[in-house]
Design brief:
The complex is a heterotetramer. By secondary structure, chain A is an alpha/beta fold. Chain A has a single domain, classed as 3-Layer(aba) Sandwich (Rossmann fold). Chain A is built from 4 helices and 4 strands, in the order βαβαβαβα. The longest helix of chain A has 18 residues. Chain A is globular and about 40 Å long. By secondary structure, chain B is of the alpha/beta class. Chain B has 2 domains: 127 residues, no CATH class; 123 residues, no CATH class. Chain B contains 9 helices and 5 strands, in the order H-E-E-E-H-E-H-E-H-H-H-H-H-H. In chain B, strand 1 and strand 2 form a beta hairpin. By secondary structure, chain C is of the alpha/beta class. Chain C folds into 2 domains: 88 residues, Translation factors (Elongation Factor Tu (Ef-tu), domain 3); 130 residues, Rossmann fold. Helix content of chain C is 21%, strand content 31%. In chain C, the strands form 3 sheets. In chain C, strands 10-9-8-7-11-12-15 form a 7-stranded mixed β-sheet. In chain C, strands 4-3-6-1-2-5 form a 6-stranded antiparallel β-sheet. By secondary structure, chain D is of the alpha+beta class. Chain D has 2 domains: 185 residues, no CATH class; 122 residues, no CATH class. Chain D has an 8-stranded mixed β-sheet, sandwiched between helices. A 4-stranded antiparallel β-sheet of chain D has the order 5-4-12-11, with no helix packed on it. In chain D, a hairpin with a 2-residue loop joins strand 2 and strand 3. The chains are: A alpha/beta, B alpha/beta, C alpha/beta, D alpha+beta. At the C-D interface, strand 4 and strand 13 of C face strand 4, strand 5, helix 4, strand 11 and strand 12 of D.
Chain lengths: 136, 275, 271, 321
């Protein structure tokens, strides 16, 4: 089973995940959730570290622009992730392993669909070889 | 040119504008940084096409003192970037701007950054020595060329280059923007990446070091020039400079008041990559 | 050639917090076969997966266990604070030199200490007391910021009852229920004003204490060659090979950690 | 002196690759090769063979400590005499009857070092200042001098047992050897080092240190490329099967090298660190081992990003300065 490290912002996406659960929306158990106060709290170093340690994919989800509990957290995050994508793609790291989304507390359905979407994308890829910490 | 620099330096000392001046003097192999504290020593200053290290990296050591710096275009932009990040006060730094003729390595080849240099004349200075020089329109042809290669080839190039690295951190110590108290690479608690020369650790080091320069790098090339193992790393930071310009319309080191791009935001930023 | 880098696996017999704020933890571990040491020596403790760090041996040579008291400060010390009874650690040692007990024969011994640097001095004190008659007067002056930071205080309260031993315990500032000295170690040293003739002084404590104690020592007339201190440094190999713990040409791990003051004075001020 | 055909040596070297690990300069650096080598002054020195940048020393597995077993013996081939001598200088620090560094010493005792004489010294070389030179045999089992299609060989028993005796050198070979040796040595600038150790020790608190060290960026380039620098770090790596304890090249120029957990750093700035590097090689080493900890190879001069030139520093502090 693939393993996706999910950084979910506490006020929106994490609540969205709760709603998905409460509403019994089915989604594959591929995510390992890390609850963060805001998508702006996610230091790109965490994404590098998650991939380095062998995650099949990383996913950061936060509030829609304008809904951020801290007003501007997701705006900062958006810039960081744009640069992260650009750099990883530039050096040739395979696409389909890094996901960003805005999911509000009321979008339980979208949360479940997004997880399904990520599973499909990650299933297409072979097991991780690039940028992997040695472990044996 | 050298005479004019010495003249400006002497004047700055006489008018009490500086207590110490960082410039280039004659070295045994090439120009070497020198630190002048007395008017009489200004005649040690020289200027030629081997002044390729970025002197701004020394400024933080003299904080609180009136410090002069003989700065080519990229050096001056690094000073501005440091001021924008509140590391230096504009009034503490006296910039003797030198329109740069482009620097060369020991084989006489012009460095990559200089070939495409857009700001040979310092955008911010206290005094300018000699006529302004026009830069070239920067459109990062080397980056576009690299981008045109297939992903596998790019990853292979990136891996082959970082394999040469021995983690002596000359790139970090030569960069004026690398001034963290404790670098993420030295942190033990948590330990982000492993020590040693395994491919993944070397990739981790060079990716995250470059990432930290997004929107802060003046493309002076000191990192690649300082590297004893000739590891190509400038193409990483030049790519980020290109991204930052396209995405956020920002060029490092032009305006001491402007916040670095990742230190601010805009509601209109593109987000097509967000689900 | 015996490999000096291989640690020996030992079990933790007791692990308990010394101070109320849980910043100091004492661990007693099994003593490996044939492990004989003298007070002042140290061991490199291995927490596999975190690393190694040097700690002075606080137990006396005659005790059947090795005691270390660890101040929680970094990567390895934090891991040591998680240790409980029965856990296994690696140790390498005994390493470094020791307090020159052979010089103390028939002489007075004055021990001045502060904070958690008292570890190896407990070992020295108990070692001297084992053959008490070989030494003349023994005086201990030991202080800390608060009573609960005084290491092994129950034991010291017991030892205070002995006539052949003079113990002065102090805390920096007034503390409810504290009846002994109040004041910094250098002040208490001046108050006690011990004679310098025929006396060896062993001093170990935080840099601030050392800084203010040195002038007092000079005033009391202690010659630098009869003053010894134990230094703390960042260490990795503990056997004088990895190069980092040098002061001048001497390695604190191999030629120290115990240095006499006159030797230290001849070296660059890098400590 | 013997003379051996070049192909004979090159062929033999490839054969020996079966039971020896061959380290030799190849496209600019000393690395492990299958027996090929390239005649050059490498950037990474022969130190890589005996003290590699990363080396596992022990493993912790299922509650037990296992020492990492030895690998095949090493042949370090084709390095310059300064690198060969550097290895024997490191050995002085590693040899110790109470705490021997077994990893380095085992490799050294079983290893063979074959150096090639330096006919064209660079202008940053100053090896003759330390009592040896481009044709020195110190620290190597054999010195080869290239002449037409064969090597003149000054070797010991260990070398000849492996590579064969070849034939007795002719009279003109010996002249050629002396002639080339003299010509090479003349090209090298000698810096004054008479009782340099004591002079440095007496000037330890001299304010000149601040001026000398100010331009140093405190990177590790000079120490990593220096053939006599042996400082190392030890760290634990977690693996699926347990823990691998490894040692890595470290540098006294890094601040974390001496930074204590409390934050205190006995060598906090570039001044103390540069002073320590120079004192270690030119004052402490002679004091402890009777030899300077430097072979005058000049790498730290060539590869320093800010052209910190140790020859100038030694002139200022020791000789005419």
């Amino acid at each position: 089973m693939k393993k996706v490290i999910a950084f979910l912002c506490n006020w929106c996406s994490y609540a969205g995940a709760d709603l998905a659960g409460v509403s019994r929306f089915q989604y594959p158990p591929i995510t390992r959730t890390i609850r963060v106060p805001c998508s702006g709290r996610v230091n790109p170093l965490y994404l590098f570290k998650a991939l380095y340690e062998g995650a099949d994919a990383v996913w950061v989800s936060g509030c829609h622009p304008g809904d951020c509990h801290y007003q501007t957290g997701n705006y900062y995050a958006r810039r960081r992730f744009a640069i992260f994508n650009a750099l990883m793609d530039y050096v040739g790291f395979e696409k389909g392993r890094v996901f960003f989304s805005w999911i509000s507390a009321s979008e339980g359905k979208k949360f479940a669909e997004t997880v399904k979407h990520i599973k499909e994308e990650v299933e297409k890829l072979p097991p991780r070889q690039k940028f992997l910490r040695e472990n044996d | 040119m050298i005479e004019r620099i010495r003249e400006e330096a002497r004047k700055a000392f006489e008018e009490g504008k500086i207590e110490i001046l960082i410039g280039f003097g004659r070295g045994t192999l090439r120009a070497t940084p020198i630190f002048i504290e007395k008017k009489e020593d200004v005649d040690k200053l020289i200027w030629d096409d081997t002044c390729w290290i970025n002197l701004a990296t020394y400024l933080r050591r003299f904080r609180g003192k009136k410090t002069g710096i003989v700065a080519k275009g990229c050096d001056a932009r690094s000073v501005v970037a440091l001021i924008a990040e509140k590391q230096l006060k504009r009034e503490d730094v006296y910039i003797i701007g030198v329109p740069c003729q482009g620097m060369k390595n020991e084989k006489g080849e012009e460095f990559l950054s200089c070939r495409y240099c857009e700001y040979p004349t310092p955008p911010v200075y206290d005094v300018l020595v000699g006529e302004k020089r026009e830069g070239k329109k920067e459109n990062y042809p080397d980056v576009s060329e690299f981008e045109s290669m297939p992903p596998e080839k790019r990853w292979e190039f990136f891996s082959e280059e970082v394999k040469k690295c021995i983690r002596c951190y000359a790139c970090r110590e030569a960069c004026p923007m690398c001034y963290c108290e404790e670098c993420f690479a030295d942190s033990l608690d948590p330990r982000w990446l492993e020590p040693g020369l395994s491919l993944s650790s070397l990739q981790f080091w060079h990716l995250v070091r470059a990432y930290h320069q997004a929107g802060r790098c003046s493309d002076c090339g000191a990192c690649e020039r300082a590297c004893p193992m000739d590891v190509k790393i400038l193409y990483l930071t030049r790519k980020l400079n290109k991204e930052v310009r396209e995405l956020f319309g920002f060029v490092t080191g032009l305006d001491p008041e402007a916040l670095p791009p990742l230190g601010t935001y805009s509601t209109e930023d593109k987000e097509e990559f967000i689900l | 050639m015996k490999n000096p880098y291989l640690p020996v696996i030992v079990k933790v017999k007791r692990a308990y917090f010394e101070s109320d704020d849980r910043s100091l933890k004492t661990i007693d571990v099994e003593k490996p076969e044939g492990f004989s040491f003298l007070p002042g020596q140290f061991c490199e403790i291995s927490i596999f997966g975190r690393g190694e760090a040097p700690f002075g041996i606080a137990s006396a040579p005659s005790e059947d266990f090795l005691r270390f008291t660890i101040n929680k400060a970094g990567y390895v010390t934090t891991a040591i604070h998680w240790l409980e009874e029965g856990d296994e650690i690696g140790i390498r040692g005994p390493l470094g030199n020791y307090y020159p007990v052979e010089l103390f024969e028939g002489k007075n011994v004055l021990i001045v200490s502060g904070g958690f640097a008292f570890t190896t001095l407990r070992s020295l004190l108990l070692y001297l007391l084992e053959e008490r008659e070989r030494y003349k007067n023994i005086i201990l002056i030991y202080g800390a910021r608060r009573p609960d930071l005084l290491l092994y205080r129950e034991e010291l309260f017991e030892l205070e009852k002995r006539e052949d031993l003079e113990i002065h315990l102090t805390v920096d500032t007034e503390f409810p229920g504290w009846t002994r000295h109040v004041g910094f170690v250098p002040q208490v040293l001046e108050r006690v004003n011990p004679p310098a003739e025929d006396t060896y002084l062993v001093m170990c404590g935080p840099p601030a204490m050392i800084k203010f104690t040195l002038p007092v020592i000079e005033k009391l007339g202690f010659p630098p060659e009869r003053v010894f201190t134990s230094l703390e440094r960042r260490m990795k190999c503990g056997i004088g090979k990895c190069g980092r713990c040098n002061i001048g040409p001497y390695y604190v791990c191999r030629d120290g950690p115990v240095f006499s003051l006159d030797k230290l004075r001849s070296l660059p001020r890098e400590y | 002196m013997r003379r051996i055909k070049k192909e004979a040596i090159e062929k033999k070297l490839k054969e020996l690759a079966k039971d020896y690990r061959i380290f030799a300069p190849m496209n600019g650096d000393v690395k492990e090769t299958g027996g090929e080598f390239e005649e050059c002054f490498p950037r990474l020195s022969g130190k890589c063979a005996f003290l590699p940048p990363e080396e596992e020393i022990l493993r912790y597995k299922d509650g037990k400590v296992e020492e990492t077993p030895e690998d095949k013996p090493i042949i370090l081939f084709g390095i310059k005499p300064c690198d060969a001598r550097a290895i024997s200088l490191i050995e002085l620090a590693m040899r110790d009857e109470k705490f021997p560094d077994v990893y380095f010493l085992r490799k050294k005792e079983k290893g063979i070092i074959v150096s090639i004489a330096c006919k064209e010294p660079g202008d940053t070389c100053f090896c003759t200042s330390f009592g040896h030179g481009p044709f020195s045999t110190q620290g190597s089992d054999a010195l080869l001098v290239e002449k037409d299609d064969y090597y003149l060989v000054l070797g010991n028993e260990k070398f000849f047992k492996l590579f064969g005796e070849g034939e007795e050198a002719r009279e003109e070979d010996k002249e050629y050897f002396e002639e080339a040796k003299k010509r090479a040595e003349e090209k090298i600038e000698k810096i004054p080092i008479d009782n340099l150790g004591e002079k440095l020790l007496s000037r330890i608190e001299d304010p000149v240190w601040e001026k000398i060290s100010r331009k140093c960026l405190n990177c590790g380039a000079c120490t990593f490329l220096c053939p006599t620098c042996y400082c190392f770090d030890i760290q634990d790596l977690e693996r699926s099967w347990g823990v691998s304890r490894r040692r890595y090249w470290d540098s006294c120029m890094f601040s974390i090298y001496t930074k204590e957990a409390s934050g205190h750093n006995p060598r906090p700035t570039h001044r103390e660190r540069v002073r320590n590097r120079i004192m270690h090689k030119f004052s402490y080493y002679p004091y402890l081992y009777g030899e300077f900890g430097c072979t005058g190879c000049g790498r730290c001069v060539v590869y320093c990003p800010v052209n910190f030139d140790i020859r100038e520093v030694l002139k200022i502090l020791g000789g005419s300065g």
